[in-house]
């Protein structure tokens, strides 16, 4: 089986290849289809964005496609940044820009009210078959300053209470095991192993 992952992110591709390698699935990224247009993520939920990306790319290529949308939801901010996580500080924002905006938005919020959760929706679209969506979620607290050198995005601000470390401080194998994306991807693996239609 061939599976196209709707990403140009090399790190994400490497992780997915590692998890799917034992199944004999050939995993390709969007670099294999350089002429594909970007799919606008304009859905109201992570699932809507993931489904739109997966179904659009699958339709244009004729290849089974896996796409995800993920981000951070903070309770004290009514779920923001949510689907706007990657562009919270505006189009073209860097991780540092987004983190600064998040810290400013949470200024004065007591530690015990800084709960957040990383969410991931992963959609698997195949030609002439219904699209399936898988979800992952990891809860934590938003710190008032960055800790750790690893990870990306909001990882340095996101404290995983069970470990007493931020996502950016955790070893990669631990992060991949507990992360929202890792959870959703393991569900995809189980689904594909089961050969479900």
Keywords:
197 residues, alpha/beta, Maf protein, 7-stranded mixed beta sheet, 5 helices, 22% strand, globular
Query: Helix tally?
Result: 5
Based on the coordinates given, report the CATH architecture: Alpha-Beta Complex
Shape: globular
* Biggest sheet record: 7 strands, mixed
Strand-pairing-aware structural class: alpha/beta
Estimated radius of gyration: 17 Å
CATH C-level = Alpha Beta
pLDDT below 50 for ≥5 consecutive residues: which ranges?
none
Tell me the β content: 15-25%
Q: What is the N-to-C order of secondary-structure elements (H for helix, E for strand)?
A: EHEHEHEEEEHH
How many DSSP E strands?
Answer: 7
Number of domains: 1
Under CATH, the topology can be stated as Maf protein
What is the averaged pLDDT score? 93
What's the topology here?
Blueprint: E1 2-5, H1 10-20, E2 26-28, H2 46-61, E3 65-74, H3 95-105, E4 115-125, E5 132-142, E6 158-160, E7 165-166, H4 172-178, H5 180-193
Parallel strand pairs: 1-2, 1-3
Antiparallel strand pairs: 3-4, 4-5, 5-6, 6-7
């Amino acid at each position: 089986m061939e599976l196209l992952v709707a990403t140009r992110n090399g790190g994400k591709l490497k992780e997915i290849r590692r998890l799917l390698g034992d199944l004999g699935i050939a995993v390709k990224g969007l670099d294999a289809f350089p002429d594909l247009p970007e799919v606008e993520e304009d859905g109201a939920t992570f699932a809507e964005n993931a489904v739109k990306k997966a179904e659009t790319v699958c339709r244009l290529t004729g290849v089974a496609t896996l796409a995800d949308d993920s981000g951070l939801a903070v309770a004290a901010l009514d779920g923001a940044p949510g689907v706007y996580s990657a562009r919270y500080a505006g189009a073209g924002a860097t991780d540092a820009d987004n983190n600064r905006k998040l810290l400013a938005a949470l200024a004065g919020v007591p530690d015990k009210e800084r709960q957040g959760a990383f969410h991931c929706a992963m959609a698997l679209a195949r030609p002439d078959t219904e699209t399936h969506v898988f979800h992952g979620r990891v809860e934590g607290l938003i710190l008032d300053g960055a800790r750790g050198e690893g990870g990306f995005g909001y990882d340095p601000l996101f404290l995983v209470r069970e470990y007493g470390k931020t996502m950016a401080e955790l070893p990669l194998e631990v992060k991949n095991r507990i992360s929202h994306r890792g959870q959703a991807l393991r569900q995809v693996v189980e689904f594909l192993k089961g050969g479900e239609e």
